[in-house]
Amino acid sequence: MQAKNITIGNIYHIKLGKNEVQGEVIEATDNGWNVRLLASDKILKVNNADRFIRKAQTIATTGNPTVEEEDSQDTHVETEEQPMEVKQTKKGLSALDATHKVLVEIGAALTVRQITEVIQDKGYCPNLKGLTPHLTISSALQREVAKGSTRFYKAGKGLFGAINYE
Which one of 67, 73, 94, 108 is separated from 56 by 20 to 30 angstroms, measured CA to CA? Predict the structure, then answer.
């Protein structure tokens, strides 16, 4: 991303080691930007504009997702793979399909507990029950990300997002 396209107050996906995290630009300095990480509220110094991957989608205060315009020079590479077919059984979606649906609807990375809560509230996966459904989702997401999933990315510790097919 070009330095001129990075604006204070906006939220971006930022490359941090092997991970992609979301952070809000809070200040421009002489040699970079100070960014507040959304997952941990820590302040991160970003010296290189190339670490900014793309502008993030935001959620309005009403709870309905709104999409801000993406920068014209989006560095996200689209693959030519067809979207995975959603498995819907008589009892609803699979846990991973329900997770993807929630993350795409919200348009932002969420913690595993938040994802599980939305899935259960909306009834997307009725067979996701028991004492620790969040651990089931967490395990499945970690396995998907580790094998190079085209649907999910890890945005931070316990924080996952969906890669849209659109």
Answer: 94
